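User: two proteins, same treatment. go.

Assistant:
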Amino acid sequence: MREEHEHLRAGVISNVIFPVTAFTAVALFTVYVIYSGLVLGYGTRDSGGTDAPVVYETGIWFESLEDGGLRLLDDQGNELWSIAYDEEAYIHSTAQRLKEYRARDNVRTQLPFIVRGHEDGHVVVADPMTQRRVTVNSFGRDNAYAFIRSLQQAQEGDSDWDSDLDSDLDSD
């Protein structure tokens, strides 16, 4: 009787190989989902920022320099200021991250990044091409203030934005 049903017994494939393969597939898929969310930034588009009204908005370009520095240009291509490779690391980090997002998304058409100053003192650099944005305040109050000051010095005549952002940052 035993020999008649021998063919119905589970073998090595169904007892060992199939469960190990299924577990490995689930584990790899989980790693992929976590990697794509944390490292590649998928699922984080248009995150961060504030809902406060925008009091100032301008376009800027980030241009990498041969010496590792960074040049910031207005939306017309005029130089606002240059930053040495070892200065203002948060601006370098912001520019690098936004440029990497464009490269990952295969963005070929180029539009300037948008800097928005909000009524509550937040400063956001947004990319209209990838829908991602970086809140400069996340690098600390002093860095946000320095970024605002640099924009104020580079662009003339935006006194309403200057006073709104200065008072909000000073009250923190």
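Protein 2:
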Amino acid sequence: MRGKSRLSANLRPSETAGRHRGRLLGLLAVLGLILAAAPAGAELTFYRATTCAIILSSNPVDPGQPLTLTGRVRDAGRAPVERGRVQIEMAETPQGPWQVLAAGRPGPGGDFAVADHTLSLESRTFYLRAGFSGHDDGRVCYRASLSPAVPLVVRNRAWADENLSMGFIEAAGDASPGPAAGSWEYVIRAKALKEVRGAVFQGYAGDWVPLAGPVLDFQADAGQVLAREPEDDADDTLITWRLERLLAGEEATLRVVVDSRDPEGEAEGDRP
């Protein structure tokens, strides 16, 4: 404090204000040089990364059961993107080829939804994803993005004897072909068809979270979750989800965040 007082005493108010004024004028001069170097009529463009999510109203589903599919677009700050074009795609394998089910502009909240979509009567597994085309309005350029793919199970009559069903209902991130960056986020939902007690689900991250890397975070709204770290680089994280009790009709969700990476042998597929 003493040193600061002596320093302040050596500067007059007019001298201090003059120094601040000089610095401000210097910054304005640099800014003027930058603007002068730009072509006449040019405007600054801001680039924003985006993430795309695919959201399923149900999973698994019965043959012919109406299903709502939603593509959701967010920027890097998680703000909704209501411009550009979103398309929802389906394939029989994670590598494609991909078929466009529907496409359109995201509405309020950055969502583009397809309601009452039904699948064939054949019991099998399909793969779904959503893609964002990007948008450039001259001032802000939203980059294109592609959600991770998730498996959708169309179950058969044997499922009628099951007490609880479980499947992916959301996958978010940017799985666009090329160098991977950031993380992918998945939501797995368990729904009790009958009262369930002491249900335990256990699996490796590579099985539960398709085409993804190491687990970064996880959280469940019910039950307990444990994750055992891999013993070496070749092992995936082992996840155990224990549900003490669910009444008939009750649901519980598990959110898993993984480090994104390029799966070996993945086909690039068509971008929207």
